[in-house]
Amino acid sequence: MILAIETSCDETCAAVVQGAEVRSNIVSSQAALHGRFGGVVPEIASRRHLELVGPVVREALGDAGASFADLRAIAVTAGPGLIGALLVGVSAAKAYAYAAKKPLIPVDHLHGHVAANFLEPDPLEPPFLCLIASGGHTLLAGVRERSSFEVLGTTLDDAAGEALDKAARLLGLGYPGGPAIQKAAEGGDPEAFELPVAMTRDPGLDFSFSGLKTALVYLVRDLPLDQGGPGREAEEPPPVVSDLAASFQAAVVAQLIAKIGRGLDAGDWNAVALGGGVAANTLLRERVGELCERRGVGLKLVGPELCTDNAAMIAAAAQVSTSIPYPGYLSFDAFSTDDRPLQPA
Ligand code: KG4
Ligand code: ZN
Known about the structure:
Number of helices: 11
Order of helices and strands: EEEHHEHEHEEEHHHHEHEHH
Number of strands: 10
CATH class of the largest domain: Alpha Beta
Helix content: 40-55%
Strand content: 15-25%
Low-confidence stretches: none
CATH architecture of the largest domain: 2-Layer Sandwich
Strand order of the largest sheet: 3-2-1-4-5
Largest sheet: 5 strands, mixed
CATH topology of the largest domain: Nucleotidyltransferase, domain 5
Number of domains: 2
Radius of gyration: 20 Å
Bound molecules: 5'-O-[(R)-(carboxyoxy)(hydroxy)phosphoryl]adenosine, zinc ion
Structural class: alpha/beta
Mean pLDDT: 92
CATH superfamily of the largest domain: ATPase, nucleotide binding domain
């Protein structure tokens, strides 16, 4: 049994996992705390993680009916993410592991999103193609073994979730933007506005969302649009906002689907899987289902709770990552971005 802790952004998470079985998966979201600022405020996130990490770990152990003595190891997201937020999780994990004389398993957050697909029900076996689309990352991963993945393409600018978050802010729909755009889009016409679907003529597997965001900025500037204000998210959006949300969402999804299709062309993949918060998007899930049916490949869609940040996926990755034996991890550090000391084993 592994206890995992995840604090890379604005969710304080702990989970207990045994094999493919999720014994507990606790997520304490700080979204309400950051909402009024329109995005995550790193220092506020770190302070809140500090308050929440102890209670969240206790709840995860309690829900799983487990104690520290039952654990094989303690896993933690080491990066990438907000460095102050990561340090809270890493320090807590080191302290728990040291006190319980257990090994520590540092995990790459992106490997965690891939590894969510190894959990019950129906754990997925490599080889598969995995789109990871979140607030911080958008990449196409080739997964040939459980313990690692190859980055086949990545965003050249904004992440898909970041683009949705920015669009939602522009339309006065609140934070986090992905679910807000999805909700507003329900009543809208996705063909009402023509927005660019970038990179589809580009033969590579990279993504780009900044042009789409700029196109929306110009559209909104030229429309007589009341952008609302605090509290707008509680109201029914005006039809033009619903149409803009639907058109924007459709353009984001079209690019993601085009690149998954191209990834399938370029390799012998048995299945497609999705990870990251944007993978919770209903339109994306529908479209990827249609694509896989057309191409005759398998499809794995984990539940929305395993798409957005959670610690069960970190425990899943930990099972195939290198552990540091007690007590050799006291000087182990978190990492914030690309220059990572840690690669999936
Ligand atoms: O994976 P995640 O929870 O955190 C990061 O590692 O970034 O992803 C958060 C991102 C946010 O940008 C949020 O707007 C987006 O995922 N998101 C969605 C949906 N739910 C969350 N985007 C589209 N549709 C959703 N239903
Ligand atoms: Zn994430």
